[in-house]
Amino acid sequence: MMSTTTNNLSIKKGFGTGTVSEQVKSHANDPFVIKKVEEATKTLQRVGLPGTKKK
Question: Which of 13, 24, 28, 40 is least crowded, fewest Cβ atoms below 10 Å from its Cβ?
Answer without folding.
Answer: 13
